Amino acid sequence: MPWPPEAREELVTLLGAGESTVGVWEALEAEGVITRLLPDWERVRCRPQRNPVHRWTVDRHLVETAVRASALSRRVGRPDLLLVAALLHDIGKGWPGDHSVVGETIVRDVATRIGFDRADVSVLATLVRHHLLLVETATRRDLDDPATVRSVAEAVHSPATLELLHALTEADALATGPAAWSAWRGALVADLVRRVAAVLAGEPAADPDSPQQITAEQERLAIEACRTGGPVLALHARSEALPPGEAAGTASDEATEPEPIGVELLIAVPDQPGVLAAAAGVLALHRLTVRAADLRAVELPSELDGADKPEGVLLLSWRVAAEYGSLPQAARLRNDLLRALDGSLDIVARLAEREAAYRKYPRRRGVHAPPPRVTVAPGSSQLATVIEVRAQDIPGLLHRIGRALEAAGLTVRSAHVSTLGANAVDAFYVTDPTGAPLAPMRAAEVAREVEQALR
Which position among 45, 104, 126, 151 has the lowest Cβ density within 10 Å, counted as fewest Cβ atoms? Predict the structure, then answer.
């Protein structure tokens, strides 16, 4: 201790060999060499994963992550740190507690033994501690909230570490399984990285009180919603090359086949109580699976000033897929949304009938999902209170959450829905009727109410 530089370079060379690494690593493991070189490896060897989204056991996942990272090594300035972090990012899963926190302690010891200097050890520890930070923040937090970007910048400290963490995030997700990574998730992470890089470069943070930028398509929908006083919808097939928020085709009432990134449904509707619950309920009635969703209030164009101008417009952006068959026509979705908003469509009763049918003819007997968990994410925003919901992804889940938040008398500033396999992790930025964040006791009370409603 420490290893000779030549030995460390040989390890990095092995990790960077791509697909051929797997066979060599397995052979070394079979002879007991790996656990002699890295004693902490024994605790993750052949260890099963807790989340069924994972394709491999913990040890094989670590090797597969290194394989994926080797293909991304040209994107970073220190490929050696990327490869070692990929190999060790889940090493804490062999011990009790949060594997990221435990892994940070373990990797400091392992990296020192391998022979990295103090600065490199610190970078490796940061990568392991925060290897889930980018994807969780990008999919569960409001990227337009300056507190979100600032918290990530404070965690990574430097552009070089951010560059490494970006590549590690992608390699980790690709090695997990097909449900863990998509072009849409990749675009969200890339957007977050771009914003954090700007903050680290010293650029001024966005003014939280300034109006948010919207695309030309979103502005057109908002204007039309103001003019008609009702919801306006547009369906878009999306290709992998386009980031979220950019139009990828012509709005049409006809269904389109999903591209790899999915189908985007944009809804603009004058702000009124119950919009989130009504829209989510209509999608559930049409058997549309919500893969991701974003809700935000947008500033109305100035030329629409007048007595009949609505107080605001909500813009809902959904990533959806048809549970069975093809997508419904946008005109049918709009008509049902109109009926849901005026109360002539009883979504609750319709969904209750379907739930009764599911219970009568269960598709997976003996499978019992853990109960939902609703928490308050402290410090996530200075503008709103963040309520985070973790639950089984079932039809109508988002509708039930929306109704519970509405019953609590809250205003939803934005919503961020992320589905990973059978699990949904949804974050809702909520305020009281005056537009202020909730007091801590009230926030905890709301979390309990929502959790009880989901049970």
Answer: 45
